[in-house]
Specification:
6-stranded antiparallel beta sheet; 30% helix; 7 helices; alpha+beta
Length: 178
């Protein structure tokens, strides 16, 4: 396990891990983690194909972001989340703001359960274990080419005792290099 993977697992949210990692390893390059929102929209439940229990009775949203430390993109993420499980002010912050998902829901004391981890090398080797994952990444049509990433993590986030979201996180090589 790489030092960054362990660092990520030692934090309750990717947002907290990324901010702490960048402060420690890239001081002077930025002050805080910021999200550039590429998409945040209500999704048809039929579009979603992950581990969350989705029904036609409860809306689900898809949010795609670039996470930046200063001017450098360090991560790209797709979050499938249940807006009605969040307080109204958090719903508004997600749809109208540029904060990372983990920062917005921090008051709920979220915890992540990792479902899958693929290193950049795993993805470049290919095979059945990563084919579906690569297809999902490419289907989003807004993320960088698969070779730009060093680590891919899929996790489910719970907060205040309820499932909030599935997180598909893609960590850029620049995170470890710049």
């Amino acid at each position: 396990m790489s030092a960054f993977q362990q660092f990520l697992q030692d934090h309750d949210t990717a947002t907290a891990a990324l901010a702490a990692w960048c402060r420690r390893n890239h001081p002077g390059c930025g002050d805080e983690l910021a999200a550039t929102v590429l998409l945040d929209r209500e999704a048809d439940p039929q579009e979603y194909d992950g581990p969350l229990q989705v029904s036609a009775d409860e809306p689900i949203r898809c949010r795609r972001v670039l996470l930046k430390w200063g001017d450098q993109v360090v991560s790209e993420a797709e979050n499938w989340y249940f807006p009605q499980r969040l307080p109204v002010e958090m719903q508004t912050a997600l749809t109208a703001g540029d904060q990372p998902f983990g920062a917005v829901v921090a008051e709920l004391l979220p915890r992540r359960t990792t479902i899958a981890i693929h290193t950049g090398d795993d993805v470049l080797r290919g095979g059945a274990a990563v084919e579906g994952f690569i297809a999902e990444l490419e289907k989003a049509k807004v993320f960088s080419p698969v070779g730009d990433f060093v680590l891919h993590v899929t996790a489910v986030m719970e907060g205040a005792g309820v499932v909030l979201a599935e997180l598909r996180e893609h960590y850029r090589r620049e995170l470890l290099a710049f």
